[in-house]
C-alpha cells in the first residue's frame, strides 16, 4: 500500500533534494506546497512535520479516507478530486482552508465543514454514486457556509432541487450543470436570494428547455454576467427588465378594471 509519509517525500525527486547544510527535517519544516497527484496513494500517513504546508495536491489517487491532517492549520488549498472518498471528515482543524476540491469521489452527503469559516470555494462535481442516488447537503454545514462560500460546483450529481442551498447568499459562481433541475419557479425563488451571483451554469438540466428560461434567469439574477457559458448583454437585460415592468403594469391595470365590475355584480346579486 502506498502511503503519503515523510519517507515518501524524502524519496521524491519533485521535492527533497539534498543540499549542503539542509537536512530533511529542516526542509519539511519550511515546505509549503506538496505535489503527489497520480501517485497511487491509498492513504495519508504522518506528515505532521510539514507545519507550514499551505497547498496539498493529492488528486487522482486511491484515497478512501481523509485522515491525519489535524496538524495542517495553515492549509488554504486542498486538492482531493478523483479519489475514492465516501465521507467528508477530519477537516475541523483546517481553519484557513479557502478552496476544497472533492470532485469525482463517492460522496453522497456534504457534511463535516462546520468549522471551516474561511471556505470560499467548494467543488463537488461528478460524484460516482449508485444509480438513483443524488448528492445531499447537511443543514449544519450549509448554515456554516452562508457567510463565506463564493463558489459552488455541483455539476452532474442527480440533483433535482436546490431549495436547501437558498441560504448561501454570498455565492458569486454557481455551477449545477447536467443535473435534473426542472422547476423554474423554485429556481427563481432561490436565485432571488443570491444578490452577489455573477456566473451560473445550469446547462444540461430539463429546466433549460422551458419557454423563456434564459429570460427568466436574467431578470431574477440582477447582477449575472454569464449564464450557461454565454455573456449577458446589458442591452438585453434592460429590455427584459422593461418588459417585466410593462407586463406587471398591465396586470395591475387589468386587476383594477376588474374590481368595479366584481363589486357591481356583487351588489346586483344582493
Explained architecture:
By secondary structure, the chain is an alpha/beta fold. The chain has one domain (2-269): Ribonuclease Inhibitor (Leucine-rich repeat, LRR (right-handed beta-alpha superhelix)), CATH 3.80.10. The protein has 6 helices and 14 strands. Strands 2-4-5-6-8-10-11-12-13-14 form a 10-stranded mixed β-sheet, with helices on one face. Strands 1-3 form a two-stranded parallel ribbon. Helix 5 (213-220) links the parallel strand 12 (199-201) and strand 13. It is elongated, with a radius of gyration of 25 Å. The chain starts with a strand and ends with a helix.
Strand order of the largest sheet: 2-4-5-6-8-10-11-12-13-14
CATH architecture: Alpha-Beta Horseshoe
Run of helices and strands: EHHEEEEEEEEHEEHEHEEH
Strand content of the residues, in percent? 5-15%
Average residue-wise pLDDT: 90
The CATH superfamily name is Ribonuclease Inhibitor
Through-space gap between termini:
88 Å
Largest sheet: 10 strands, mixed
